[in-house]
């Protein structure tokens, strides 16, 4: 295990907004100046880092644990394969990869507060071998072309300013035959469940964020960011646009979340 490497700062032109004016992008339901989104997102996760794992259980009623197990299984951990875990936060995907017999892993996140929590959790679990921590902007990954076998991002892509650029960077660093996987909240496919899910997201979740984490606004943003995220088919099209092939997705819990997969051929 290594100490946390400091952030890599891309050039201002590295990212671009998604389907917005050139100088603005979404931050939840708000339009904000493009240059401000990363700092706003960083502030959110600085605020929630210490309670992030508890709030994940609250946000998904604990189902995220089962989703992540499915996700790690899809990654196919193997000693001969390496993993870059983008927006890896407090470490669940990297930990699952290593426990499943995967090879070297890089746990990366743009937010050092989240990585610090992840590193402490790794130490508590005795996961001290084969795991590096690096503060990385997923839109400008400081790795060489064709350098890793798997790239994962779980519940992180929706917080990125330029999602297409993240997908392009993931493809760039994958070795030929490598696989990209994204786990993210998505578009509910069961019409009867949608009103209940909306009520939970926009009324219950912010209140629980205030009660448990002392931060209503951050959890209001997280609920809004889910609604602003591309639906399953749109994200699949974006992955193809980024150059990934054999793109597929599977819905989890009726589309509350989805796993998208693409390969570098």
From TrEMBL:
Keywords: Menaquinone biosynthesis, Methyltransferase, S-adenosyl-L-methionine, Transferase, Ubiquinone, Ubiquinone biosynthesis. Residues 1-28 are annotated as: Disordered. GO terms for molecular function: 2-methoxy-6-polyprenyl-1,4-benzoquinol methyltransferase activity; demethylmenaquinone methyltransferase activity. GO terms for biological process: aerobic respiration; menaquinone biosynthetic process; methylation. S-adenosyl-L-methionine binds at residues 90, 109, 137-138. Residues 16-28 have a biased composition (Basic and acidic residues). Methyltransferase required for the conversion of demethylmenaquinol (DMKH2) to menaquinol (MKH2) and the conversion of 2-polyprenyl-6-methoxy-1,4-benzoquinol (DDMQH2) to 2-polyprenyl-3-methyl-6-methoxy-1,4-benzoquinol (DMQH2). This is Ubiquinone/menaquinone biosynthesis C-methyltransferase UbiE.
């Amino acid at each position: 295990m290594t100490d946390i490497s400091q952030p890599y700062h891309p050039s201002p032109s590295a990212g671009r907004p998604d389907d917005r004016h050139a100088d603005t992008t979404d931050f939840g339901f708000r339009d904000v100046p493009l240059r401000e989104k990363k700092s706003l997102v960083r502030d959110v996760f600085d605020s929630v880092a210490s309670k992030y794992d508890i709030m994940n259980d609250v946000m998904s009623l604990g189902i995220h644990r089962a989703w992540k197990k499915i996700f790690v299984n899809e990654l196919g951990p193997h000693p001969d394969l390496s993993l870059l875990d983008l927006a890896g936060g407090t470490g669940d995907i990297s930990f699952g990869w290593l426990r499943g017999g995967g090879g070297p892993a890089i746990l990366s996140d743009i937010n050092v507060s989240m990585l610090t929590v992840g590193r402490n959790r790794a130490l508590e679990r005795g996961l001290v071998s084969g795991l590096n921590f690096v503060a990385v902007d997923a839109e400008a990954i400081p790795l060489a072309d064709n350098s890793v076998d798997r790239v994962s991002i779980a519940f992180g892509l929706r917080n990125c300013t330029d999602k297409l650029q993240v997908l392009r960077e993931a493809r760039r660093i994958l070795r030929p035959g490598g696989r990209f996987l994204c786990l993210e909240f998505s578009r509910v496919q069961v019409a009867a469940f949608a009103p209940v899910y909306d009520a939970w997201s926009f009324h219950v979740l912010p209140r629980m964020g205030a009660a448990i984490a002392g931060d209503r606004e951050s959890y209001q943003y997280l609920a809004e960011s889910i609604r602003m995220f591309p639906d399953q088919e749109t994200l699949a099209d974006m992955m193809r646009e980024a150059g990934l092939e054999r793109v597929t997705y599977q819905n989890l819990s009726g589309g509350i979340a989805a796993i998208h997969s693409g390969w570098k051929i």
